[in-house]
Amino acid sequence: MTISKEKLLWMYETMYKIRYYEDSMVEAYSEGKKPVFNIGAGTVPGEMHLATGQEPAAVGICAHLTKDDTVTAPHRPHHHAIAKGIDLDRMTAEIFGKETGLGKGKGGHMHLFDPNVKFSCGGIVAAGIPQAVGAALVAKQKKKDWVAVAFIGEGAANAGAFHESLNLASLWKLPLIIVVENNSYGISVPKESSTSISSNDKRAAAYEHAEGYYVKDNDPLEMYKTSEQAVERARRGEGPSIIEIETYRYLGHFQGDPELYRDKEEVPSLREKDPIERLKQQFVSEGIASEEEISDLESNGKNEVDKAYHFARESAYPRTEAALEDLYC
After folding, report:
1. What are the residue boundaries of the Dehydrogenase E1 component domain, all occurrences included (predicted)?
2. Cα-flanking dihedrals φ and ψ of residue 235, to 5°?
């Protein structure tokens, strides 16, 4: 399979944009939370879950989706939202709790939604899968070739909603794709301590019309190729799929997580095989893009993110800033 240069450049720019967005959120989230960490204080109050390192999972499949396809995300949703084409200004304003946000600042980081691109964030573990089943059922009833994609962490594959949803999706041959982002930890519990199967794509064998796929080593191009098979299969009406991608979470389960469950050398070793840097080197070595082209893509991504953060900071709160300070401080 040949991937067009346009699509490859979109994938790189989008992954870079996601990474820069998450890195910028680390800084924004830390404002006002020192010297003693206070989850309710600061510019962005509340819990914060970032997906730095997991960009290939979102970009690889969203490269095949249109605005008519549905995406649901868990509590770590920014990479999915950006890859699906969410309004970045309004998403950032929502996270900052501003009136101009997607939910007028009342949903926050774990409850993002944008009906214009059929994106929603279920928030709690596995909650987005039944929503995606509903969207897939609508597509089948309306005789549309729409696809519904539910992103989950590997821990959510042990939840009842995962199996109940797959049962119905297989029974009715719905165009559902569940993407399992295996970042090795369910909060702080290693996968091998909680799951009795080596990879969740194998669970598809329990459902007659389901197909399972596995993507190794956080590879965005392999994720793209695998996703193409699952998406085309769904559009043909052949039933649901499970894609598990071996990915990596560079940061803790939440910002402020002491990460006592991780070896201190784990993250540095993972960063040595960073998917964005690997893709960049591949583009240059294979003549897909020059250093100048890549620099332009990075500048485009940075400018869009910087604009979104500026928009969020300049937007007004639903209530007066003084009232919010009384509420959170």
Report:
1. 46-319
2. -65, -25
Residue 150 host element (H or E): strand 148-153
Q: Find the DSSP H helices in 172-203.
A: none
User: Is the separation of the CB atoms in 310 and 26 below 8 Å?
Assistant: no
The DSSP secondary-structure symbol of 201 reads G
108 part of a folded domain: yes
* Number of separate domains in the chain: 1
Crossing angle of helices 55-62/275-285, nearest 10°?
A: 60
Beta partners for 149? 71, 177
Comparing 36 with 173, the larger pLDDT belongs to: 173
Burial of 260 (C-beta count, 10 Å sphere; 0-12/13-18/19+)? exposed
Give residue 220's domain range. Answer: 5-252
CATH value at residue 17:
3.40.50.970
Burial of residue 143 (number of CB atoms within 10 Å: 0-12, 13-18, 19+): exposed
Whether residue 168 lies inside any domain: the answer is yes
pLDDT digits (tens, 9 = 90+) for 271-299: 999 999 999 999 999 999 999 999 999 99
Spatial distance between the Cα atoms of 249 and 303, rounded to a whole number of angstroms = 25
